[in-house]
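FIELD: query
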Amino acid sequence: MEDDVPFSVEETGYNNKHEVEYEHKKKLIKESTENLRSMVEDLLTVIPDCNNRLLAIAEDLDTFHQKATNARTAGISVAIVGGITSLALVPFTLGGSTIGICLATAVAGGVTGAAASIADSVNIKINCGKAEDIVKTVNTKMKTYEMASKELDSLIKDLEAMEKTGEIPDEPTFRGTVALARSEADGIVQLSELSLVAARGVQVALQGNELTTVIIAVIAALVIGAVLHVNESNNYTKTKEATEIRKHVEELKKLHQDLKKIAKDLFP
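FIELD: result
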């Protein structure tokens, strides 16, 4: 462990290598805690922003889908009305051109419906792709936060172990000591509290990673579904994709609340 310490007993004036290592651990804990605070602050800003962007995407999906549904309905109506009107004229004119007009009008209605369905599908694919990228951002940050929480937890456990072995004086007076405690006894208590925060951070990070990984997989499946099932949602004013995204936003809001609790402990 002493190999990790960037200074020697002679350079610091401490009594032995254990004191040097102890001081170095405290310094690392302080740096790790500050790093964790920065990450939590970032996540508390990023997650609400991502939620707003996801909700905007869900709204766009439903709005576009409603317009596409209206276009499909209009196309079908044009096809039916145009076809009946044209066919009604056939016995009187007996002209091939009239039949041609009839078919052309009917086909035009079908094309309108198909075009609307395809446009709706493309819009779903594009927006779900955007939603996937947004959630990936949170997922990446949660993984980094998980690693930082584990690092802090490990450092604290190492320091507590050193204090319990008796290798450190009862009342250490190290220069530049981290403002975690004024005495060893107080230090153990405060480090234990900080250790609980780090442990909760690991748990929340794991849950956040699992949640965002699932959301990414679900959205990726929705992208595939948008390509394979163009007309699946023709008769609905709301898309299942938008509904799914809104559901996941609520889950991300819960994650945000958990992080706020950790932030409260990190910023007493």
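FIELD: remark
Confidence is low (pLDDT under 50) at residues 7-12, 77-96, 98-109, 171-189.
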